[in-house]
Amino acid sequence: MANLRAGLIGLGMMGRHHARVLGSLDGVDLVAVADPGGDPHGVSGGRPVLGSVEELIEAGIDYCMVAVPTVYHEQVGLALAAAGVHALVEKPLAQDTPGATKLAQAFADAGLVGAVGHIERYNPALQQARARLEAGELGDVYQVTTRRQGPFPARIADVGVVKDLGTHDIDLTAWVTQQTYTSVSARTAYKSGREHEDLVAVVASLSKGTVANHLVNWLSPLKERVTVITGERGTFIADTLTADLTFYANGEIATTWDAIAKFRGVSEGDVVRYAIPKPEPLRVEHEMFRDAVLGKEGADIVTMEQGLTTVRVAEACIESAQTKKTVDLT
């Protein structure tokens, strides 16, 4: 069977990583790359560097990785759908809900595989957390808290922190808990002098009663990517920077030494950091999309419909911050 012919459009900070993976992916030939600005990171590997999505389509590709700025996702994605080319689009799916709706509908109408690059779903720590939650190891899930913060990224200019970083947490929380968002209340701040927000705090309700909290900013020198899942049997902490998942069991042994109890708590349970395989999430994401294009069973992709839902929740967070009211998503 001939290899799939893949293309890549967008050769910026994320595009260079996609080029590395696509250039070494089994069953796939990266035949050309495209970016109106050329190849600033030198990732083409001798392949043609084209200037537009139309030129990329003319190169005869089966599918395309879209890593252009968010504001161009709709335009590029619709061109690919019209040409019958499957596409994996970097998150968020589009700049706004109308654009995301058009993309999801266009790929569905054309019978094409369309997916969104919500890479955190493929992080080993969160893959393990979801599997263990599904197996009932934590019992009922009471709360999911995420912290995602780091330095200001000068490369992001077309959206704020909610749609750029916050969409990671919205998607992973819905996916890990297998619930949908029913309401959100959010507050934002503008501290870097730009048009878009650079800090957000969210309180949300999920469809099975779980409460979610998201703290996201571009204002911290500390880079943090943590998801805390609290349930009736204890707490999972997933650190997606190190791909570690740690379980803190509810306390069963009383702490009778008063001096320790003051800072450790009145009871202790087991603490386990799981030893888990740690494949690169980006490679797994591309492997899953390749398999989906090939029609293989078990290809776990983030569909454009799911990506559209995430954009809707993100926009509800922005609306809530602007109106200072809780937004009902039901």
Commentary on this structure:
- Helices cover 32% and strands 27% of the residues.
- It is built from nine helices and 17 strands.
- The N and C termini lie far apart (46 Å).
- It has helices spanning 13-22, 53-58, 73-82, 97-109, 124-134, 161-177, 258-264, 281-293, 304-323; strands at 4-9, 28-34, 49-50, 63-66, 86-90, 114-117, 141-149, 181-189, 199-206, 211-217, 224-231, 234-239, 244-249, 253-254, 267-268, 271-273, 327-328.
- It folds into two domains: 4-119 and 283-301, NAD(P)-binding Rossmann-like Domain (Rossmann fold, 3-Layer(aba) Sandwich); 121-279 and 310-328, Dihydrodipicolinate Reductase, domain 2 (2-Layer Sandwich), CATH 3.30.360.
- By secondary structure, the protein is of the alpha/beta class.
- The strands form three sheets. The protein has a nine-stranded mixed sheet. The protein has a six-stranded parallel sheet with strand order 3-2-1-4-5-6, with helices on both faces.
- The longest helix has 20 residues, at 304-323.
